[in-house]
């Protein structure tokens, strides 16, 4: 069975609630594609208005972060039950900005993956290498280690419902993009490593996105690669061109 493509927008810290609703209205007719799962991963303050704005459409809503406890004295955090009650289905975990700016390590990221599955959220687990690791030629070992740690204790059935986003850090927000061949190489590496950790069926089922400056101009080439099942889109998800990425096959 062919894996269904998944195109997710990561809005990062952009869009006020008013702007978010306006963007949903702009994109509404542009992101219709029955062959693709479409997700808007939005700032916490935008979740409620965006869920309302996309109601009845093909768009699912994701969050950009959460904490591993259901409630308590964790000022500034948001919990899985809060997200689910608000209408969230997907959750980004382990984005390079969470790792680099906010110091999230693989132990916490692994706990978040476990919590997401336990709560009924669908994780979009991010991995990727810096420019230094890419130049040093050690990026394959680095990414394999991230996958191994982040999926510790996660079952094969859970992994089949996981989305993994490969995001070369050197190609995020820089305008630089891995070539289709470079992106395919790492996405295949991830799939092969999942087969090694679990089995061939699990590797064949898991969806792997590319997440480094995918845009309307390069989406079709990237998404034609056999192991690239979608995109985690940053800047390009905030404008009408996002619809062109979603409809890359038309």
CATH H-level superfamily: Aldolase class I
Beta-sheet strand percentage?
15-25%
Determine the oligomeric state from the structure: single chain
Overall pLDDT score: 96
Shape: globular
CATH topology: TIM Barrel
Unreliable segments (pLDDT under 50, ≥5 consecutive)?
Answer: none
Number of helices: 12
* Order of secondary-structure elements: EHEHEHEHHEHHHEHHEHEH
The separation of the N and C termini measures 21 Å
Structural class label: alpha/beta
- Tell me the Rg in angstroms: 17 Å
Biggest sheet layout? 8 strands, parallel
Which architecture per CATH?
Alpha-Beta Barrel
Number of domains: 1
Tell me how many strands there are. Answer: 8
CATH class: Alpha Beta
How would you characterize this protein structure?
- This protein is α/β, with parallel strands linked by helices.
- The protein has a single domain, classed as Aldolase class I (TIM Barrel, Alpha-Beta Barrel), CATH 3.20.20.70.
- Helices cover 41% and strands 16% of the residues.
- It contains twelve helices and eight strands.
- The protein has an eight-stranded parallel β-sheet with strand order 7-6-5-4-3-2-1-8.
- Helix 3 (80-86) links the parallel strand 3 and strand 4 (90-93).
- Helix 1 runs parallel beside helix 2 and helix 7 packs across helix 9 (180-197).
- The longest helix is centred in the C-terminal third of the chain and has 18 residues, at 180-197.
- The protein is globular and about 45 Å long.
């Amino acid at each position: 069975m062919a894996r269904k493509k998944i195109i997710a927008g990561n809005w990062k810290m952009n869009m006020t609630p008013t702007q978010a609703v306006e963007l949903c209205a702009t994109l509404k007719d542009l992101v219709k594609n029955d062959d693709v799962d479409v997700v808007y991963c939005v700032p916490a303050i935008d979740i409620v208005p965006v869920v309302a704005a996309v109601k009845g459409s093909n768009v699912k809503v994701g969050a950009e972060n959460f904490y591993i406890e259901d409630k308590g004295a964790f000022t500034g955090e948001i919990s899985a039950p809060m997200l689910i009650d608000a209408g969230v289905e997907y959750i980004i975990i382990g984005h390079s900005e969470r790792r680099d700016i906010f110091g999230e390590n693989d132990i916490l990221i692994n706990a978040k993956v476990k919590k997401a599955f336990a709560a009924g959220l669908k994780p979009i687990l991010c991995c990727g290498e810096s420019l230094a690791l890419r130049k040093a030629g050690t990026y394959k070992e680095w990414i394999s280690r991230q996958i191994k740690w982040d999926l510790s204790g996660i079952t094969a059935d859970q992994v089949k419902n996981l989305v993994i986003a490969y995001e070369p850090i050197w190609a995020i927000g820089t305008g630089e993009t891995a070539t289709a061949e470079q992106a395919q190489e790492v996405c295949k590496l991830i799939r092969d490593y999942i087969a090694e950790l679990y089995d061939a069926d699990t590797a064949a089922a898991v969806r792997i996105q590319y997440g480094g400056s995918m845009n309307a101009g390069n989406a079709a080439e990237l998404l034609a690669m056999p192991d690239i099942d979608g995109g985690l889109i940053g800047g390009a998800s905030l404008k009408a061109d996002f619809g062109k990425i979603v409809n890359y096959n038309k």
